[in-house]
Amino acid sequence: MDLQMIAMISLASLAAGGLGWVFVYPVLSGERRAEQRVASVARADPVARVTQRGPQRSRREQVEETLKQLEVRERKPKRVPLSIRIHQAGLSWTQRQFILISVGMGAIAFVAALGIGLGLLPALGFGFAGGLGAPQWLLSYLKKRRQNQFLNGFPDAVDVIVRGAKAGLPLLECMKVVSNDAAEPIKSEFRAMIETQTIGIPIGEACSKLYERIPVAEANFFGIVIGIQQKTGGNLSEALGNLSKVLRDRKKMKAKIQAMSMEAKASAAIIAALPPSVMILVYLTSPDYIQILWLHPTGRMMLAGCAVWMLIGVLVMRKMINFDF
C-alpha cells in the first residue's frame, strides 16, 4: 500500500472521528439528555396552590392558572406548517406558488449544471440544492429579517400603548394608533390583531396569536401580559410599562452579545476565507502548479476532504459563537 493511500485512509478516519465527536458523542455521553432535562425543569409549568381561601381564589392563583393555560396553548409545535412559515417570512405566496417556484429553481439548477458539463450526479445534487435548500434558506432568512425588524420597533409600540392607557384610552384604540403610525411589520401585525378581535375573538386571545406569526419571546410576553390583564384585571399601563423595560433590556443584551461575539465571527470568516483565497492567488500566479488538484483523481479527493474539514470547522465555530438568552 503506497503512502498516498495510507494518507487518504488516515484523513478519512480523522474526518469520521471528527464528525462522530461533534454529532454522536453528545448523544452517547448523555450531555444532550442532561441539557433536555435541565431545560424541562427550567420550563416547568407553574403549580397552582390547592389551599382553600374561601369561595374566591386569590389573584396569585388566578395568575398562575392563566400562565399555565397560556403556556399549554401557545407551546410551539415540533414542525411548523409551510403556510405559517411563508407568513412568518412576510410573503404573500400560497403553498402552491411556493412549491412551483421551488420546483422551477431546482430544474434551472439541474439544467445549468448539465449545461456546464458537470455530469448527472453533480447535476442532481445542484437540482436538489436549488429545489429544496435554496427556498428553505430564503424562508429562514426572510423570517429572521422580519423578526429583527419587529423587535427593533416593538418597544416603541408598547410605549405608545402605555401612554394611551395612561391618558384613558381603551386598549383597542391604542392598538389602532399603533397600526396606523408604526412601521412594518408591526403595523400589519397589530392590524391583524384588531381584525381578529372585531370578528368576536377576545382581545387577550387575539394578542396571544401574535406569537404564532412572530415566534419570538417578546411577542409571547406581550400576549401573556394582555391575557392576564383581561382575565384578572389590574393596572394595564403599569404592566405594559414593566414589559417595555424588559423588552429594552433584552434589546441591549442582544446588542452586547453581538458586539462581544463579533471578534470571533470575524476570525471565523477570515479563517474560512483563507484556503480559497490562497488557491485563487496560486492559480493566478502559477496555474500549472495547482491545476493537478482538480485534474487528477487523487487531487479531487483531497479537495473533497478539505471541503469536509472546512465545513466541520465552520459548523463548530458557529456553534461556539452563537448565544441564546
Characteristic terms for this protein:
mainly alpha; 0% strand; 81% helix; 325 residues
Query: Segments where pLDDT lies below 50 for 5+ residues?
Result: 41-56
Radius of gyration, whole Å: 27 Å
The description of the largest β-sheet is: none
Summarize model confidence as the mean pLDDT: 77
Global structural class: mainly alpha
Helix content: over 70%
Taking the alpha carbons of the first and last residues, their distance comes to: 53 Å
List the total number of helices.
15
Count of distinct strands: 0
Commentary on this structure:
The protein has 325 residues and is mainly α. The protein is built from 15 helices and no strands. The chain has helices at residues 3-29, 31-42, 59-73, 82-88, 95-115, 120-166, 171-181, 186-198, 203-208, 210-213, 217-232, 236-285, 287-290, 292-295, 297-321. Residues 41-56 have low confidence and may be disordered.
Short recap of the structure:
With 325 residues, the protein is an all-alpha fold. The chain is 81% helix and 0% strand.
SSE layout and pairings?
Elements: H1 3-29, H2 31-42, H3 59-73, H4 82-88, H5 95-115, H6 120-166, H7 171-181, H8 186-198, H9 203-208, H10 210-213, H11 217-232, H12 236-285, H13 287-290, H14 292-295, H15 297-321
Helix pairs in contact: 1-15, 3-11, 5-6, 6-7, 6-12, 7-8, 11-12, 12-15
